[in-house]
Design brief:
heterotrimer, A alpha/beta, B alpha+beta, C alpha+beta, A: alpha/beta, Amidase signature (AS) enzymes, 11-stranded mixed sheet, 16 helices, 11 strands, B: alpha+beta, two-stranded antiparallel ribbon, 3 strands, 37% helix, 9% strand
Chain lengths: 489, 98, 501
């Protein structure tokens, strides 16, 4: 698409319109979008076309449309984080990610659906209704960033932005047959990213192939003085890595604790197959061990709720967002209580209460304090393992997309979706999921996860590109060409 | 093992300023018992000689120079306000004191 | 039963704890680059960060760190090689995030001390106040309570919030508990806050104006029976807005506690509010059901680890210690201790010094600031610093008196005029037509006139009854509209009436 735009074969306006039409056609079924910024997107597209006509030198992705997870602020565009408590809120400022997208002349089509405040693995926790997996509309698209990945799979947008705290980019990518990357923590600015768990959250690129994801990665990453946890170093050369795809001599570590034991059989099959392909491409497969990974889920479910219980305290009906209960006899306290009751969904409340508990005096050392120690142990496990290999791999998640409603009453079962993705966030390193094929038993997409050491994101793109190329050869066509036709209008 | 009673949950809900129905309090208290057992596993490995991480990155001393930059305009600042008066955010009477 | 202070200290000894909050004078806020200028229109100095909009992140003001380290060094603290910010979680509308970024178990400065000297029955005595910690945090927004009778929070219908102040850097200085002050507790506390204020002022890190809120003091007081090792229950008193109030508040609380204890009642651990008018405290929020702040390290900020070289540079750049500075002034000006104490007590020492720097004689400058100007301030019930007379004005007035253009009496008129806002001393002199009558001719004319009008008094003087001269001198002064030099008049008058001095 970018080449076509650059060559002048198509205008951005036309390209944007094509996508807007597609959204109109299929989104009633998919429900990937919470807000489609028709006017804004076309205006942006027109501006890019004008610049190109004027002969200005533009960035590689200029004029290409993109779907933005509704957790990133965009000035004057409704931003809800999937919650009722922010219904109708229009931020007065752009997140740094949006600023960077605009600087690259990427056209933002609209805001995508998500689990409320990024808490979930299925997008069923959205206050605005679930998103449906384009591969099978009765199934979940993953979460929390199901809207972004579904938009890609449904061809509603060629690029998307997601955020990942415990797997919220990678797991949706896996179950929708798309590519999703969580860069090293600190690689992409969190300024304007509505916070869920501050020490784990990270925004990242989503696309239908590895090179597109790399191009988007370079567009959004970089140091931001407004984010004190931002990495002050040049963005790694991920595009070059994606174009190279040469894994000869690279050591690929299969994590013993995440090798697929107990996972759905089709997930294992595709995983083993991918390993074989990488070996054929010249990589060496080694086994590594990370004994503390089994505690990662438990530690995550203490750290993330603790941080979120504090991050979400600002939603108090005083300065913005929903206000309930104002009237005769109301007090600031009663309005806060009633607003948060009405505005937050059940999963959010559950995690706030759990977090409040984990931070309480008397429990801090046992819960939050201990969980932060587990984090150290996990980081040490990664450090040790990366001495033996260049990247580590695993299936992205244990199953393919489950049915909407199937796990929503069982929080623990839901949490287990993240078992392979969470360790990456705990250590702050980079993780990518790319499509490994379809599970034979249900014909649904399976994801392959690649993990790279902190500040070495380019390695994910190198290995990812290699695998993608090998799979493409094997399939003869991109995986998404096999996606069932969406009925649409 | 670990459990939260309905009253414990009510206390936490008060700290978190979320009003909850009786049904919610009771069912959360049940759910928590299960979750807490699961997460208490962290204590199995969290020994005294392990340092807790609170940052994935070993950054230190990240500072901003003491320079004033433009603020939001008053209308931008108040743009989301549920109620405002005379350029200030209007909130219902505050019962507690600080 | 109302107790006297003496009765209280005969039976009980007080234990103090003082928490002082200082608003730093940085250009921008603690965690965002909004301006900190006082008095701006509401909500004109806010941004996503200090409004706590979703997605906003804090960034640390380097100058605030520097100022805090300077404060710690000046208070003889150790600077922690590693310190962290922490979230203090509680809900309140003036605190937009519903948590305050503060410091908890890893503050930036610890274990310091301040020595204060007060006057006791046994002469001057030095008390050492130990400092537990100095840490950084952020200020809250300001609420206006509308609809109630008094504009206070009780009974208000609603509140209006201005977040200009939210996020301004605050430094909190906490003492260890201070036993052993006995009956001097109120003075020691006052001296401590005053000394802190002087130190902070000399560091130029804050305006330290208690009346404006850039220096705030919370006083903790408890009583125990003399000789007991067991600490009593303490109360915390807020809203202490002047040095005088610090003294009064502690004194008042000591009496209140003693009255309760004598009746066999319990002192409630609570926050109380100091009432300026009555000098008493009113009960506020009970601290017995203490809010659980759920402190945890601030994940959006990274630790502070000031390197030794930076700390040394700051240490080298510290101004002369306030106490040493004062000793130096005292020697230079040859001022007796009592006078020195008087200047410090009246809070005019720096004003006197500034006047001296502009050329005024120290004794004369002191005389004006402690005398006439203090008197006027007391009459108007204002602090001296609130009067519109400056050290420059005083220096000029002293110069005018030296050159003879003003007499002391006329100088008083000029001072009054300057304070009334009529301008500089020169402007007041011109505007009011103040002039010393130096012309002997004019004086003799006045003297003769007066002698003619009061022949009996003149006769008395001729006969050697000199005290009577006062009445005639007064009449001459009146005749010359106060512009004569009284000493000159006396000389001429006596000579005229055949008497020598």
């Amino acid at each position: 698409m970018a080449k076509a735009l650059a060559a002048g074969d198509i205008t951005s306006v036309a390209l944007t319109q094509v996508h807007l039409d597609r959204i109109t056609s299929v989104d009633t079924d998919v429900h990937a979008f919470l807000f489609v910024d028709t006017q804004g997107a076309l205006a942006q597209a027109a501006a890019v076309d004008a610049k190109r006509a004027a002969g200005e030198k533009l960035s590689p992705l200029a004029g290409v449309p993109l779907a933005l997870k509704d957790v990133m602020t965009q000035k004057n565009v409704p931003t809800t984080a999937g919650s009722k408590i922010l219904e109708g809120w229009r931020p007065p400022y752009d997140s740094t990610v949006v600023t960077n997208l605009r600087a690259n002349d990427i056209v933002i089509l609209g805001k995508t659906n998500m689990d409320e405040f990024a808490m979930g693995s299925s997008t069923e926790n959205s206050a605005y209704g679930p998103t449906h997996n384009p591969w099978d509309l009765t199934r979940i698209p993953g979460g929390s960033g199901g809207g972004s990945s579904a938009a890609l799979a449904a061809f509603e947008a060629p690029l998307a932005i997601g955020t990942d705290t415990g797997g919220s980019i990678r797991q949706p990518a896996a179950v929708t047959g798309t590519v999703g990357v969580k860069p090293t923590y600190g690689a992409v600015s969190r300024f304007g990213l509505i916070a869920f768990s501050s020490s784990l959250d990270q925004a990242g690129p989503c696309a239908r192939n590895v090179l597109d994801a790399a191009l988007l990665h370079e567009a959004i990453a970089g140091y931001d003085a407004r984010d004190s946890t931002s990495i002050n170093a040049p963005v790694p050369q991920v595009v070059n890595a994606a174009k190279s795809g040469d894994v000869k001599g690279m050591k690929i570590g299969v994590v013993k604790e995440l090798n697929g034991d107990g996972y759905q059989s089709g997930v294992r099959i595709r995983f083993e197959e991918s390993l074989e392909l990488l070996a054929k491409a010249g990589a060496e497969i080694v086994e590594v061990s990370a004994p503390n990974f089994e505690y990662a889920l438990a530690a995550y479910y203490l750290i993330a709720p603790s941080e979120c219980s504090s991050n979400l305290a600002r939603f108090d009906a005083m300065r913005y967002g929903l206000r309930v209960g104002d009237g005769e006899g109301a007090s600031a306290e009663s309005v806060m209580n009633l607003t948060r009751k009405a505005g937050f969904g059940r999963e959010v409340k559950r995690r706030i209460i759990l977090g409040t508990y984990a931070l309480s005096s008397g429990y801090y050392d046992a819960y939050y304090g201990s969980a932060q120690k587990v984090r150290t142990l996990i980081t040490q496990d990664f450090d040790k393992a990366f001495q033996k290999c260049d990247v580590m791999v695993s299936p992205t998640c244990p199953t393919t997309a489950f049915k909407i409603g199937e796990k929503s009453n069982d929080p623990i079962a839901m949490y287990l979706n993240d078992i392979a993705t969470i360790p990456v966030n705990m250590a702050g390193i980079g993780g990518m999921s790319l499509p490994a094929g379809l599970a034979p038993e249900d014909g649904l997409p399976v994801g392959f996860q690649i993990m790279a050491p902190a500040m070495a994101d380019q390695r994910m793109y190198l290995v990812g590109a290699a695998l993608e190329a090998a799979l493409l050869t094997k399939w003869g066509a991109p995986l998404l060409s096999k996606i069932p036709e969406l009925r649409g209008k | 093992m670990s459990s939260l009673s309905r009253d414990d949950v009510a206390n936490l809900a008060r700290l978190a300023r979320i009003q909850m129905s009786e049904e919610e309090l009771v069912s959360l208290s049940h759910e928590f018992t299960v979750i807490l057992d699961a997460v208490a596993r962290v204590q199995e490995v969290a020994s005294a000689d392990v340092e807790p991480t609170s940052h994935p990155l070993p950054l230190r001393n990240v500072f901003r120079p003491d320079v004033v930059l433009p603020s939001l305009s008053t209308s931008e600042a108040l743009s989301g306000a549920p109620a405002q008066e005379e350029s200030r955010f209007r909130v219902p009477q505050i019962l507690g004191e600080e | 039963m109302a107790l006297t202070y003496d009765e209280v200290v005969a039976k009980y000894e007080p234990v103090l704890g003082l928490e002082v909050h200082v608003e730093l004078n940085t250009e921008s806020k603690m965690f965002c680059p909004c301006s900190t200028i006082f008095g701006a229109e509401p909500n004109t100095q806010t941004c996503p960060v200090c409004l706590a909009l979703p997605g906003a992140l804090p960034s640390v003001n380097e100058k605030a760190i520097e100022s805090t380290i300077k404060i710690g060094l000046a208070l003889n603290c150790s600077i922690a090689p590693f310190s962290r910010f922490a979230r203090k979680n509680y809900f309140y509308p003036d605190m937009p995030k519903n948590f305050q970024i503060s410091q908890y178990d890893e503050p930036i400065c610890i274990n310091g001390y301040v020595d204060v000297e007060i006057d006791t029955d046994e002469g001057p005595k030095v008390f050492r106040i130990e400092i537990e910690r100095v840490h950084m945090e952020e200020d809250t927004g300001k609420s206006l309570h509308v609809g109630g009778a008094t504009g206070r929070i009780h009974g208000a219908e609603y509140s209006l919030l201005d977040y200009n102040r939210a996020g301004i850097p605050l430094v909190e200085i906490v003492t260890k508990i201070v036993p052993g002050t006995g009956k001097y507790a109120p003075q020691v506390a006052k001296a401590y806050v005053g000394e802190l204020r002087d130190i902070l002022r000399s560091l130029d890190v804050s305006d330290v104006k208690m009346e404006q809120g850039s220096l705030r003091c919370d006083a903790n007081v408890s009583l125990r029976l003399i000789g007991s090792q067991v600490l009593g229950t303490r109360s915390e008193t807020k809203n202490v807005n002047s040095l005088r109030s610090v003294e009064r508040a502690i004194r008042g609380e000591m009496i209140r506690h003693a009255e309760l204890l004598n009746k066999g009642e319990r002192v409630v651990q609570e926050t109380r509010h100091f009432q300026e008018e009555s000098g008493l405290t009113r009960s506020g929020r009970s601290k017995e059901a203490a809010e659980d702040y759920r402190y945890f390290p601030e994940p959006d900020l990274v630790p502070v680890a000031p390197d030794a070289a930076w700390i040394q540079t700051l240490r080298d750049g510290l101004p002369e210690r306030a106490s040493i500075h004062r000793k130096r002034l005292q020697e230079a000006w040859a001022v007796p201790d009592k006078e020195m104490a008087a200047m410090i007590n009246a809070d005019v020492l720096n004003l006197v010094e500034a006047s001296v720097d502009l050329g005024a004689d120290p004794t004369k400058a002191r005389g004006w600031w402690l005398g006439e100007i203090s008197r006027i301030a007391n009459d108007k019930d204002l602090a001296i610093s609130d009067l519109s007379i400056t050290p420059s004005d005083v220096a000029q007035i002293v110069a005018f008196v030296n050159s003879g253009e003003l007499t002391d009496k006329l100088a008083r008129q000029v001072i009054e005029g300057v304070i009334a806002g009529e301008g500089t001393p020169a402007a007041v002199i011109a505007h009011r037509g103040i002039k010393v009558v130096n012309d002997d001719g004019a004086l003799m004319a006045a003297i003769e006139k007066v002698c003619a009008e009061q022949p009996e008094t003149a006769h008395k003087i001729r006969n050697g009854h000199l005290p009577a001269a006062g009445a005639l001198i007064g009449a001459v002064m009146k005749e010359t509209k106060g512009q004569a030099d009284a000493a000159r008049v006396r000389k001429l008058l006596l000579a005229h009436l055949g008497q020598a001095e």
